Structure formats: structure tokens, C-alpha cells
Amino acid sequence: MPRIQLALLTLTIAMLLAGCVATAPAPLAPAIALSACRLSTPGLAVESVSAECGTLAVPEDRTAPSARSIDLRVVVLPATGRAAPDPLFLLAGGPGQAASEAFVATLPALRRVNQSRDLVLVDQRGTGASAPLSCPLEDERLTAAGDDPDGPAAMAYWRNCLDSLDADPAHFTTEAAVADLDAVRDALGYERVNLLGVSYGTRTALSYLRRYPERVRSLVLDGVVPPEMAIGDAMDRDGQRALDLTFSACEADQACAAAFPNLRANVDALLARLEREAPRVRLDNPSTGAPAEVTLTRGLAASTIFSLSYTPETTALIPLLIHTASAGDLRPLAAQSLITARELAESIDLGMRNAVLCAEDVPYYAATNNGTSYLGDMPQRALAAPCAVWPRGEVPPDARTPLNSSVPALLLSGERDPVTPPAYGEAVGAGLPNSLHIVAPGQGHNIFFRGCLPGLVADFLEAGSVAGLETDCVARLGPTPFFTSFTGPQP
Predict the structure, then answer these.
(1) Which domains does the chain have, with CATH numbers?
(2) Element of type H or E holding 280
(3) What is the DSSP letter of 243?
(4) Which of 33, 82, 261, 304 has its CA 20 to 30 A from that of 54?
(5) Are strands 435-440 and 483-485 parallel, antiparallel or unpaired?
(6) Contact 454/110 with Cβ under 8 angstroms?
(7) With contact defined as beta carbons under 8 Å apart, do 176 and 167 qualify?
(8) pLDDT band for position 22 (cuts 50, 70, 90)
(9) What tens digit of pLDDT does each residue of 444-484 get?
């Protein structure tokens, strides 16, 4: 389910610098040795991307610079045309995603930006090739442990993972990552940067702005996480909101409503049944084709529905999956549970996720939730469970303080986002007077690459201002049509 932050240059100066590309001095020779490389995303059949890669050694413990160091993976896609002096840094979500993997599929959406700006991707410490804190997800067991996330099996898993790490997770916080980013900026010779953060990456971006305001020209925040928000604490409520919007959209769609007339009652009955029975479902693993068996618990089913709510393409399947499971065929839903577990294993370094959440979020969870969501307290219990054994880093006293800044900012939200709904963008935008918040209809979590939004991002970065942005095209975005059968939406 994903940012960085003191006093800044005025909007007038930002626009002046943006207009001086032709005469701006070139960056100093970088202190990071870069060589040709190719980027790809594990588990995704997307074309690899050519880039320049290098490493930068930084202290693991920034209070002890002479102690052990870690190597950060740094990737640069040089501007394809005449380069502006301020690059675009891409900050990944999670927490636990590696930028050099997470953005590969969406880099084509930034092709226009890349014509005039370097794109820089840094694998945040603890992810990818930057001293990863990896906990292997061997099967669907941990996802299924949503029903008992702090039980003996789950806790043994987290202890074993912690014991296997050759690092101190207490030093893998957002604050440490922010210092790393500025070290990379300095080593590459950039005076100022633009930041594009997605999900948890927006926390990193806002945190960088808080610490190094003079270094930030502009922000693009996609799936906004307010500094005061504890990631995961409202996941039950926000997930229920997204599912309710999906059900309402189905009820308003003639084909979907006719095919699935009792969705709300069906999902309640299905989850109640799975809580009582937890049947074992035999199927072919959709990733490998090998025979598989899944214990379909209530927690596993609910977490699978929640995961499918992230994108409009997978949201379009939810009514069909609920209807099919309610009618007695649990295999499609069980197959989706295997797919989402595999995606989690391949995209998130769980040890780094724990390092961030256990220090910055879990201590601020409410004692109880409202109990009205289909997710129950599963998200909070599952995210908090590792913190019983995980080392907890230091968090600055002001890290959770709402940020006020005149930096130009473009904020993006999906209407049906199940984890960072539009209200969060509104909250952050209140402290950014030179910002614009765009809510994309029918969309889910992280949207900068959809429809006309890449063009708006490019326009914003070129101008260094939200003034005059033409946003009418966003209204043409919408949800993926609902699947009424496994052959696709009704024609």
C-alpha cells in the first residue's frame, strides 16, 4: 500500500529558472560512475529499458558515518534532447518497492518529460539492489495469514526473516532515505530537482521538501499520503469506500446489474461462509500451470478483493468473481489470490516495508477500528504483527506535521483509490497554495501514466507552475467496463 520536505525559492524564481534552459550551465561531472544497463520488472512481460546505472556508497547509520556502508543503486535515463538543469527523480511506493523496477512499465508515459529532463531512479535503501531487506514469500501462506497474522506461524516467519538480514532495519527509515536522495543529487551534480512520488513515494517527496526545500523545483504527488497519516490505519475504511463505489457503479450499469443483481448480499454471505468453513480449493496455478491447492479463508478472499481494487482493469473483475464464488465455484477467486500473492512477493521487499511501518506508522494506529468494513481489522493486524519483533528506527518529531510550502505541486488522485482516496490529496493540497489537485473519474491507485495525464505532467514540469493547465481531458477518463463473463465485458 509509497514523501520528502524547510524554506523555498519563490514561484517566480522557479518559473524564471524553468525558462532559462538554453543558457543554464551544465551539471558538474557526476561523482557516480555510470555505465550502460537495462531495466526490467520481475514477473512482468514488459520490454526492458536502456539506461545508465551506478552505485553510491552511503552510511548505513547516518549518525556513524565511518561505520558500515551500503551501496545505493542509481539509474539515470539521460534527456534525449537538450537537457534542463533540473531532472525528475522518480520515487516508488510500497513501502518496499524498488524504483528501478516499479517504474519500468510506465516509463513510456514520461517520454516527453525525458526529452528535456534526465529521469533519475534510486532504489531506496532496503529495496531492489540497494541492500534489500527481503523476506521471501514462499507461497500464499502469509497472505492467508490475514486471518491469524500474529499467530505462531506468522511470527516465526518474521523472526526467521529478521535473523537472515545482514543489516540493521532500524536505519532504513524514510528520513534516512531522504538523506540518501540528497547525497545522490549532490553526487550527480544537480542543483535542484523535480520529484514525482507515487503512493508511499509521496511521503518521501514531502519529507525531502521538508528537509531540503531549496533543492526542490516542483512536486508531482500521485496517490497522496499526508504526513500525519499512519499508513494502514484507515485501510479498512478506505477499502470499503472503494468497494461500495464499485458496487454502485455496477448497479448503475445495465449489463452489470442484470448479470449480478445481488452483489452486496452475495459478498457478505460469501465471506461469512469462508469464515465458517475455509474450504480447500484445487486448481491449476495461473502463473505456472502446476496443480495447486489453496485454503480460501475469509482473510485471503477479502485481501484479494482489496488488491483487485487498485486498478480499473482488475476492479472490472470483482463483481464476476464474487458472483461466481457465491454460486459455488471458488476457483477463479482462489486463482486471483495466487496471482496477488506472487505480485506481492516480486514487487515488495517486506523487510524494508516493516522497517518503515514499524517506526513511522504502526505506533499511531487507533486502538480499534469501526468494524463495518469487509476487511475487518485484518489490514491493521497484518501490518502491525511484524513490529512485535522488528527493530524500530528514530523518527524526527516533525515528521508527522502537515507541510506548508509555496513549491508548485500537481496532486493526482483516483476516484476509487482503495488506499489513498481523494480526501488525502485535498488535505495535503491545503498546505500547498501553488498546487492543483486532479481527481480522475473511475480510476484507482496511481494514475500519472493514464490517458492525458502524462501530457499534463509534462506541461506542468515545463512551466514549473499549475497556472493555466488545461485539465478538461481528465473527464474523459473512466473505469474499465465490467466483465459480465470471463470472455470480457458485454459488447
Answers:
(1) 11-132+167-230+397-476 (3.40.50.1820)
(2) strand 280-284
(3) H
(4) 82
(5) unpaired
(6) yes
(7) no
(8) very low
(9) 999 999 999 999 999 999 999 999 999 999 999 999 999 99
